[in-house]
């Protein structure tokens, strides 16, 4: 029997140990060591979490928005004060470097900060005296119980995308973090309770498929937020919407970088290497496909040279550039795609398969890998590898590069590197992708905007955080009011009323 600590559930303001007989090991990807165990929550435990959220909603929705915001102000300060601890938890369970883990926490912290503006963002509209003393106004009201299903690759940022805005708008929340990285969400919940979030407003359940299907089908849950793989995201969107829920589901990506011949060579190569291999390539905004236009193709050998300089190792070592992948299965899948890509015509300019890290023999390491000559139809192009693999191709013109991107099924993010304002303007206008970077490799918007992935990268039509989150977590109620009702009191009519 494992002696690793057991991760608790959070139900109605209390952390409780599950009575489940099914527990999953949580591994440190750098060593293979079991660092915790997480339960498959029992049906009655899941029901209790939703009931707690339903009961809490009755009072939380009536809590003045200023008070809800003050709670979030306290929470964001506690997140800032405990950033190092949260980052250490992420590195232990997820594997990313400490510096990258701090970035994970900070980007979530920014969304919490933005949620403190909820009072202004929830303002409605009013039109006075449209006819005979009749006024029309709209108000935004919370939905009820909302739920979040979070991925392994951002254990802090993405949960904070979800529950911070969900709860500040007056909803109550049930979170299901990834069973691979439950520790950070547990600590965030402790800080939220310390900040004054009332019992039942935030609850945590754990599990795999059964827990996901429960969220998608429980009648009390009104809305679901999900970030993760295509297969899971499609299932959650289909099952959730079939059960009458509002669903936002961020799926896969294949993000292209277009490199024009006039780009700053040194800055561009460094940006590409960082964006492709950071976080071991395990982020949906990684620049995994580089398209060199015209004479810029001469730079391709330098990509492999620069990538080979990156150090692979445990995330808690200060000199590590690329940490481990999350599981042996993820590493094996990536290795298989690279092997198949070479068999189908790609050239291996840098091979990161089989890399060994002294002292971390049990880790799931995959070194930076560069494939050239990758075209549509090759598995390295068609698949989201989710590993430190950069695929490279060339095109003769910017038009050709844009056509390549627009023919891809995904629409999460892309970037162009150029010193030409005309080329940048053409690119941002014509490319059919939700998030565009100009001389910036990972164009994740700040929280006052929304995460606007498009096409095959999202299901649902309301985006994460920013103004999109206010729309997602609230419903509009329109009130038509007449306090001059005696004007036509003695006139009977079966005609549809007109106010104009």
Automatic annotation (TrEMBL):
Keyword Thylakoid: no
Enzyme class (EC, first level): oxidoreductase
GO terms, biological process: L-valine catabolic process; thymine catabolic process
Highest taxon of the lineage: Eukaryota
PROSITE patterns: ALDEHYDE_DEHYDR_CYS (PS00070)
Single GO MF annotation: methylmalonate-semialdehyde dehydrogenase (acylating, NAD) activity
Signal peptide feature range: none
Keywords per UniProt: NAD, Oxidoreductase
Residue ranges annotated for the Aldehyde dehydrogenase domain, each copy included: 15-479
CC per GO annotation: mitochondrion
E.C. number: 1.2.1.27
NCBIfam families referenced in this protein's UniProt entry, alphabetically: MMSDH
Family in the record: Belongs to the aldehyde dehydrogenase family.
Protein known as: methylmalonate-semialdehyde dehydrogenase (CoA acylating)
